[in-house]
Amino acid sequence: MLDRLPPARGHVCSGAPLESNLALAQSLGVRITPTIIFSNGEVVTGALPLDEMKSMLSP
Questions:
Q1: Is 37 helix (H, G, I), strand (E, B) or coil?
Q2: Is residue 47 part of a domain?
Q3: Where is each Thioredoxin-like fold domain found (predicted)?
Q4: 44 membership: H or E segment, kind and range
Q5: 5 part of a folded domain
């Protein structure tokens, strides 16, 4: 509240972006976070040690 007035109503989200993200994740078989899908199609799930992550992201 500001000056004893409630805040103005905000924009109501439709939920569409969330729905489309969930549909994409399901179509790719993503069931856990984090999941990284590399350009070569390799899928890595779960947290990785920093050094391992760096080596996977290096060209």
A1: strand
A2: yes
A3: 18-57
A4: strand 43-45
A5: no
The tokens for 45 are 């799930």
Q: How far is it between the farthest Cα atoms of the chain?
A: 57
- Across the chain, mean pLDDT equals 88
pLDDT tens column, 3-21: 888 888 877 777 788 889 9
Q: Is residue 11 domain-resident?
A: no
Global pTM reads 0.57
Rounded Cα distance, 32 and 49, in Å: 17
Identify whether 3 is part of a domain.
no
Total domains in the chain come to: 1
Helix, strand, coil abundance in the chain, percent, nearest 5:
35, 15, 50
